[in-house]
Specification:
Two copies of one chain form a homodimer. Helices cover 57% and strands 13% of the residues of chain A. By secondary structure, chain A is an alpha+beta fold. Chain A has one domain: Winged helix-like DNA-binding domain superfamily/Winged helix DNA-binding domain (Arc Repressor Mutant, subunit A, Orthogonal Bundle), CATH 1.10.10. Chain A has a three-stranded antiparallel sheet with strand order 1-3-2. In chain A, a hairpin with a 5-residue loop joins strand 2 (69-74) and strand 3. The longest helix of chain A has 14 residues, at 93-106. Chain A is globular and about 45 Å long. At the A-B interface, helix 2, helix 3 and helix 7 of A face helix 1, helix 2 and helix 6 of B. The structure holds a DNA duplex.
Chain lengths: 107, 107
DNA sequence: TGCTATAGTTTCTGATAATGAACTTTGAGA
DNA sequence: TCTCAAAGTTCATTATCAGAAACTATAGCA
């Protein structure tokens, strides 16, 4: 059982609160891909080479819950689902950009 | 800028390469604390409330290996060890800053 | 009738991270 | 001699994340 939230509540530190949203490696990479525009499930699955459909679904649902992206289902056969960043999600561009710049200069 | 990734070897994408260094929640929080100056093991242990000494040691050693920080041991009893960011580590300030700003505005 | 396509879901399994508690080392001071 | 402090280490256990493979639903098409 996890009483972390009960003990600490909403973290005071804004860095910690941000990290609660972008947790894990795949999450940031999904953000990276969606920053250049709306993508379908299958498109993300290809560009994030190596991700399993389960993990991709998990991460997308978590980001949707946090309000970082929206999921639009088109009632077609075969199904079409599009993922788009919200304003909140697009604002994370600064974080992804900072990572990219650091990675370019120091790694 | 190129956000696409490559299948073989060292990732082409600079975001991915950056994420190889700052992996996990604690790592970023350690960075946050060291950005305001040199800290001792015990100081980090207190400011990162809840971290176990094993985890703190593991993360600090990994960051040292990546060249993000230096570890200076003073031959005293009881021991004193100081952790300081390198230029490479200080450059991650932009990432931590972007996280803080986003967290402040959107969470 | 069977095939295809997309966007998943389900179940099982494994790797990595992190936790908690107890223990270690060493010299100085009571 | 006993105790204390700092910075760990060690061991056992749990939590979390991720992966592989198989399965589902449905309409259009040949």
């Amino acid at each position: 059982m996890n009483f972390e939230n009960q003990i600490h509540g909403r973290p005071e530190c804004t860095v910690e609160r941000a990290l609660d949203v972008i947790d894990g490696k795949w999450t940031t990479l999904i953000l990276r891909d969606l920053l250049s525009g709306t993508r379908r499930f299958g498109e993300l699955r290809s560009s994030l080479s190596g991700i399993s459909p389960k993990t991709l679904t998990d991460r997308l649902r978590a980001l949707e819950t946090q309000g970082v992206l929206t999921r639009q289902v088109f009632p077609e056969i075969p199904p079409r689902v599009e993922y788009t960043l919200t304003d909140k999600g697009r604002a994370l561009g600064s974080v992804v950009h900072a990572l990219a710049e650091w990675g370019a200069q120091w790694t």
